[in-house]
Amino acid sequence: MRVDVISIFPEYLAPLDLSLIGKARRSGLLDLHVHDLRTFTHDRHRTVDDTPYGGGAGMVMKPEPWGEALDHVADQEDSRPILIVPGPGGARLDQSLARQLAAADWLVFACGRYEGIDERVYDYAQSTYDVRVISLGDYVLNGGEVAALAIIEAVARLVPGVIGNAASLFEESHEDGLLEYPIYTKPEQWQGFSVPDVLLSGDHGRIAQWRHQQRLDRTAARRPDLLPPELAGAPEDLVVGV
Ligand code: 6GU
Q: What residue range is the signal peptide (predicted)?
């Protein structure tokens, strides 16, 4: 998969050299390029923002540097990349969208700052890109960079080969609509807290049943919105709090 990120703070993307994503880059599974938006300015101050037409607070990112940056990136190959613009006004990222994005050959991230990017950039980009505005959730970050990091991590780990143990991708929260069960390792006793007996029983049937119940309980307690409708109003012995 190819990934390009355009930002006025390319240093924000430095963590993409670390851990599994860094390894995927070095192995060639992930072809990642970070571009400095200011490269595409032509004035002495390398200006990327200006005041909003119609008035209002804050500054707006100017269209010209974005137009040039998007042309420069898309010029490098001839397929139609997905352009992801991270922003609180976008469609919420979830595991199913991450899976959809992981199937793409090429993602480009346009990280906005200030109040956002001049709206005409979205219109202009449509001719070359499949444009998607994506949000992490209902709160506001200062810019798209941290969101791009999160989206890239959520997506890249689903690209075949990026995670060594592919089985670990199936047994995790949000893969089948329930949160994950609690996990324990040695020692058996720690700070007066014990590992639940059932996990030491060797009875795999009971363990599987216990884990499933834990998943239901946790989901009911922490994320009732995720519970399937047939369990949402279930009696307390089925979904009790954690
Ligand atoms: Cl994707 N961007 C920004 N700037 N703020 C956000 C967000 C994204 N998701 C939630 N808040």
A: none
